[in-house]
Amino acid sequence: MSRLFGSVRSRATLGATLVVAVALVAAGAAVLLSLRANLTGEAGTRAERSAQAVASELAARTPLGKLSGLDAEDTPVQIVDEDGVLLAASEDLERISGTGIAEVTPSPARSDGDDDGDDGDDGDDGDDGDDRHDRSGRSDDDGRDDDSLDPGEIAQGASYTNGTATVDGDTEDYRFAAVEVETPDRGRLTVHAGAPLAAEHSAVGTALTSMLIGFPLLLGVVAAVTWLVTGRALRPVEGIRREMAAITASEDLRRRVPEPATHDEIARLARTTNATLAALESSVERQRRFVADASHELRSPIASLRTQLEVAAAHPELLDLDGAVEDTVRLQNLAADLLLLARLDAGERPAGTRVDLAALAREEAAGREGVTVEAEAVEVSGSRGQLGRVLANLLDNAQRHARERITVTVRREGDQAVVGVADDGEGVAGADRERIFERFVRLDAARSRDDGGAGLGLAIARDVAVRHGGTLTAGAAPAGGALFELRLPLAGADRGTPSA
User: Fold this and answer.
1) Is the pLDDT of residue 459 over 80?
2) How far apart are CA 88 and CA 49, in angstroms?
3) Are 327 and 305 in contact (CB under 8 A)?
């Protein structure tokens, strides 16, 4: 189960289905409540009309036995006086609840007495009228209360309740309306009339059944569509994953993941992945060349040293001690260069000490022939040893190519310190001004390794410059030779990370 819902496709489908389900349940509940309220309101209106019709007959002095509203089959009616005594009820009414009057059989004494009073006056009508005035709420000083009614007047509005009634053996739910009427001969009466709620129950039941059947089908459609759409949208991701798995298994970094012909996030992911693969391929290839070149460079001094030692072992008198020392020093320097490059490749950050470039330039130029230093005091933050190595490598390179003169300048330009090393040699062609910073690159193929070094000096110098947040570039010197410019942020300035 956890594996099934571990995919983006499954979670998206489940999430969309749950959201739609919640929305459908909320909408369905609102529809059912609204439908029920409307139908109940319509039933209440019908019940009120029935009660108003009976009240109108009572206001017109219609005898209880002749009320037409008591004959309706689907409208149970009760007529109650102010004392809560049932005066009349619908025919065939067997049981009722919800009106507050559970009786279904009228009181014989009250109903008969009222009917007799309808046939003639006995001289006490005035008193009875006064009593009825009192019961209707009229005061002795002809003032009127809020609920007082004149004889023959029907109260505006009605009160509603829900209940049940059994008529001729059939029990149903009803909406009851209670309407008050002030009769001329019987005082304040209340007419309870009901309208059946069968239509409301049927409509709500039908709607609920439709929802119970339709909602699962709709959720199934939503889930299926979401599953298909997300599957189609994520298909390129699966292609990228399979290709990355194949690249990992084959270790072939020349392969690339497919890029969709779209402009969405997945297409950008594919392009970024391919760019990462290209950078990784370049890095691995660079590392392979580095290892191969390092092995090649190490082979020469080691072979020379071994040969001299073997000759010395066989013929001690032929030992070239100076040559053996020279090869050992060369091997030591090469090993130191390789170790420094390995540390730089590992991301070693320089120390944060302050370094005076003017003093460092004079220190590195001391003892070298033909080197002139023109420097102003400029401080940068970094490793004194590594920056000294940069200047030493630049001066070594300049001495190998200069005819007579080398000039070292140190100056301030804005928030940068600029160190320039210029010679009066042949210079570097524009096409080679970036290639010379690659490792183990020597532009003069005919130059011997002993005279030209291993081709790591400029590569080390640039890597150190980059680690210090600066740059190292090659250009043309005013005298026509090569000019190497080292630019570093001043001490205390924000250090960037420019690319090499």
Assistant:
1) yes
2) 18
3) yes
